[in-house]
Amino acid sequence: MIKKILKLIGAALLILIAVQAVNTMRYTAQDTSAVQAELPIVDEALFAAHLGEAIRIQTISTSVDMGARGPEFQQFLDWLVVTYPAANAAMTRVMVGELTPVYRWDGADTNLQPILLTAHYDVVPVAESGLADWQQDPFSGAIASGFIWGRGALDDKSAVVAIMEAVEALATSGFTPNRTIYFSFGHDEEIGGADGAASAATYFKEQGIQMAWSLDEGSMILKDVIAGLELPVASINVAEKGYVSLDITARAEGGHSSLPPRDTAVSTLATALTKLQSGPVPGGLTGASKEFFDGLGPHFTLAQKVLFANQWFYRPLLEIVLSGSPATDAMLRTTKAPTMLVGSAKDNVLPQKATATVNFRIHPRDSIDGVVAHTREMIDNSEIEITLRGGFGNEPSAVSDKDGIGFQALSKTFRQVFGDLIVVPGLTVAATDSVHYAKISDNSYRINPFVFTGEDIKRLHGRNERISVQAMGQAVQFYQMLIRNGG
Fold first, then answer.
1. Which end of the chain is more exposed for a tag (fewer CB within 10 A), N or C?
2. Is 122 a catalytic residue?
């Protein structure tokens, strides 16, 4: 009897191994080869000088009193007109939200649905405490060691400049797109885009303009970032996480700290936060997350490839492994991060109210209501108050078509300009202006044409922000080719 059972187990194992072997053999990689094309000749030194000029105009967005913006924002808009005369002559421009320019480049075939290319020109502030760590002044626009340095070099003046350089060159050559192309350059993306991109979206809607597809920031070409991959990865993000912050409040009698009760508002709040953090929001390899890893899976080592090719068997293990890294865990689920705490105004006073703010980035499978429900369930205390900070949040975006004409144009252009690389649909885990532009686009894609390493990612909103002179040249080539391919 035992021998018979062992034989059955052995046979089952052999079948399991055979099935996994066949699945792995059939799990073939996409064609990653370069698409041959004659790329435009570009003047990298000129682009670098122009980006340096743009960086020196300090268009800083903060969350405090942005109604009184400095003259730098208008100075930047004037700079766009002076620096790119052919582009401005070829296109018409309207201003929305006072400081966001929307350009229209009329196409030859008015029956074709238009497309939209976007970027933003506002930047985040530079922390005074970190100035000494900058190798170049953060608003110098210095060109040194093969890089252009300063705030906006990566996020996102480089994209604005690269787009305008591309249009300037094409317009100078007499090129006219077949399809009408719109361009929108937001002035307040770093604080939510409520006046800039949102006003642009409203303008398009009022004009009855619906884009075939739009392109914004949100990802980049990742080089030596994902362990186990030899080729760079162009993650064309087809969706964007939602955003909401919850204020979690505990109340108590208050009083003097010399006579504390067993539980104070602070200790009750601490217990609630501990419970909330005790377990992640349920997630997994589904939707846009699955498409991202399915695109990468065939390019991993054999051992990793076996796991991805047989997700029906290994998915629980895969999800445990992927959850171990903050970068990949954010792809699998809605994330939560306590970010702010407010209690007593004085160290010897027991607060009557203690509040923690927890920021959630919502996966496309979830919703704001679901986040609130999860928070209530985890805390499990009816006396704890849970409210939306500011009274609102952004739901996650719809998932755009990875087989659509926009995705195909982007994929082709990346391979023309950057050569051999893996192109996959991905998920933007942060917030971009696409939350607004997606409302007037059939499909919305999110990626900038810059090669990023792990070190470059740290520079976003951080110290020593920079971009290479070569990267700016490639970006201008990319936008020229994209305008030809997509327009």
1. N
2. yes
